[in-house]
Amino acid sequence: MTLSAAPVARRLSLLAAVVLLAACNEPPPGDDPGVATSDDTVETVFAVNVTPAIQGQINDYLEVNGDVQVTASVDVYADTIGELTALYVNVGDRIAEDQVIAEVDPSRPGQNFVPSPVTAPISGTVTRIPARVGATITQASPIAQIGRTEELEIAVKVAERFISRVSTGLSAIIRFDAYPEERFEATVTEISPVVDPSTRTLEIKLRLNSRDTRIKAGMFGEVKIITEQKAEIVKIPATCMIRRFGETFVFVVEGDRAFRRIVNPGIEIDNKLEIASGLEPDELVVYQGQSLLEDDVRVRVVDTVTPITPEDIVR
């Protein structure tokens, strides 16, 4: 009996498809695609990295910028109108209260008067001299500015939406471009009673905790105001957390399986996340590979690391 060409071709095509399917389902050497179960199905094994939940501290802060300024500053004016004939100080000079810093000659054509001395109203350092010898001075023209540079403060602006988080007495860490590797401590000492209507910000002043001659008035500082401090809390890297369908959860590894755990997050800052409830210290949490996981799947732990420490130092 002779077979027609069409049925033979169909049978050969079917045989080739079966061989190809078997080849595709065969795992390559060295791979671990899954584990065979009792009903001959293959369970996928997911490779993950884990980290232990840490019990320790966490600090929340506001990051703002500000300028260093003296705590007290006054402009010095002459008592009379006339020509500035002498100036006895320079910027940076330390002067005492009532010290003569300049003289103004009130003479006019046909009238000669004794030069009038200009004295310092407070002790301090000369921070600015806007006047020049030979210029005509009025009682509204400042000759110099004197500031108490031994006491410095930093003025910053805080956005209106954050003002409920600040209060006097809060600690702060300050960084200056002149000393990028060092951090200086300060305290919030003054909060303006009004919000600037044009910028929607509130001015806050901080006093440096210790006098450091390296810090000068006019310097620009990056300020971190610590608004909340918590101790003995559970924390993990923030990247471990997953938000999906209105739920917040992490995956916890127990043995060779990963389980979804609903958690209640707290402070989240600098890739550190407080877990208010739902997680215990030292439990292993998936921090790499969690996006593909579902509840109660088989996993293979590739690496266990500790990316955060119990201490929390604001830098």
In short:
This protein is mainly beta and 315 residues long. 7% of the residues lie in helices and 51% in strands. The chain folds into three domains: 44-57 and 232-304, conserved putative lor/sdh protein from methanococcus maripaludis s2 fold; 61-70 and 150-229, Beta Barrel (Elongation Factor Tu (Ef-tu), domain 3), CATH 2.40.30; 76-147, Beta Barrel (OB fold (Dihydrolipoamide Acetyltransferase, E2P)).
State the order of secondary-structure elements, H for helix, E for strand.
HEEEEEEEEEEEEEEEEEEEEEEE
Continuous helix count:
1
CATH class of the largest domain: Mainly Beta
Mean pLDDT: 88
Instruction: State the share of residues found in helices, binned by percent.
Output: under 10%
What is the assigned CATH homologous superfamily of the largest domain? Efflux pump adaptor protein, beta barrel domain
- CATH-defined architecture of the largest domain: Beta Barrel
Q: Tell me the span between the first and last alpha carbons.
A: 90 Å
